Each structure stands twice: as structure tokens, then as C-alpha cells.
Amino acid sequence: MAPTAFFEPSDDGRLYPTRYSHSLWAPNTLHGPAVCGVAARRAEAEFGRNGFRPARFTIDLFKAARTDPTDTVGRVVRDGGRIRVVEVDVVQYRADSPEPVTVGRSTTVFVRESTNPPGERWERPAEYPTGPEVPADDLLSYFSRADDADPVWSHDMSPMQAPVRKRLWTAGVPIVTNEPLTPFVRTVIAAESTSLVGNWGSGGIGFINCDLTVVLARLPHDGRVIVETDSHVEFDGISTSTASLYDASGQFATGAVVGVNNAAAEIDFTVVDTRERYAEG
């Protein structure tokens, strides 16, 4: 079985999507974690600096990404003593376009690490959720109801299709074959599921996110991340959702997305089995 990853590298420098990157929304398209993750990978690898921590990642997903050869183009916007800002475009090479097509544009803010100012400030109470015990090579996502006192974790999504507050526990799939995820890229991939846990209701998921923002006070300390819905608001075909991200030490980041009505392609998880993408084939 080939290594699990969203993309395969090639000698031409482009990344070729694998089946693990394919979206459930439409045939021959890529899902959000793959697009967001490949942008975060470029931002960190090319523009990260010692002493600077990625504190915010934002990406606008303004065009559907296809299963075409993919690349990223980055540039520095600001290189200051305390703040470093970079942009990364996700571009694709399509047979029907003579020029590369930009499908997303991200901004990453790196902030210099220092010490906290004096005094005390309000923080969320220290209680936080923990995930189940599973093998280290288990890449399946697990779900539970966030308001249950004794949550039951399962990778079967159908019982979760209800108007309830949800949690997702995920390891994250590598962006590129044989390249381990960094804590930052793992966080971005996990945070994209803010849309899933926030917009998933009794009929499935009918809002599709057109962006992602994740803010990080620190990087995760281990390889698994819990994404827990904090809020969801919807009016006139527009939704906003936020989620808290936890590792085994507590909360470390917050995700936010804007969703737009995509009911014509609504995904019903009582009939779709997402586990198939991780089956040998």
C-alpha cells in the first residue's frame, strides 16, 4: 500500500493530488484540508524563522480546487522585528487554461516569541476533552457529542448527524508523501474541520466554507488534535462557525470559518462512508 498523503511530489516541482485529497462535494475536486495544508506547508517551510511562531493563518478559498497538478507561490509582505507576514497562493495547472489558475490565497502572521506581560487575565477553565486510545497509525477521525458528560468516540459519522454540538479528534494526513506533518501544518489541517463540526446538522452538511482562519497561542505538543464546536450562527444562506482546538495539554488555538449555502450538493453522512478513502486500494 502506498504511503498515505494528500499529494505526491514530482520531478517537475509540482504536487500531484492523491485520492486522499479528493473532496466529497463534487467529482474531481480537492477538499479543504488539502488546499489549506499545502499553503501552510509552503509558508512555514520557506518563510519560517527561528524565534518567530506562526500565530495566525488565514486562507480565502475563492475557486474550487481540482485534481490537477498543484503548486504554491509565496512572498513576504512584512519583515519586522516582532511581526513577519507572508502570503502564499495555491495555483493549479489545468489543461483548459494557458496560465496557472489561483484557487486560494493565504496570509500567515509569524510573531516573535517573548514572555507574557505582568498581571493575570481571564482564561477558559482548565477542563478540556481527551480523545480515545487508538493505534498510532490510525488516521481515521473520531467524533463525539461535546455536551455529553461521558462522550463516546466513534469513527462512524451517521449517529452524529443531528443538531448537536460536536467534537472531532484527528491525527491529520501528511501533505506530501514521506514528509511528516509539522505541528503548525497539523493545526491548519485540523482547524479546517471547524466547518465540518460547525455546519454539520440533521440533514448533513449543506454549508461549504469559503475561508479559514486559525489563531494559535502555541503549537500542539503531540500528534492528535481535538476540534470542538464553540459557536454556529446562520442567516440568509450564510453561516459563521468557531471551534476550539485542544491537544493533551489543553486549548492552544481557535478556528473560524464562513460558510455559504451549498445545499444542492449537501453531503449526507448517513449514506457516505468516509472511511473508504483510507482503505487499501
TrEMBL record:
Superkingdom to which the source organism belongs: Bacteria
Domain named Acyl-CoA thioesterase-like N-terminal HotDog: residues: 24-103
Extent of the signal sequence: none
Pfam family, one: 4HBT_3
SUPFAM superfamilies: Thioesterase/thiol ester dehydrase-isomerase (SSF54637)
Name of the protein this chain belongs to: Acyl-CoA thioesterase-like N-terminal HotDog domain-containing protein
Organism of derivation: Gordonia effusa NBRC 100432
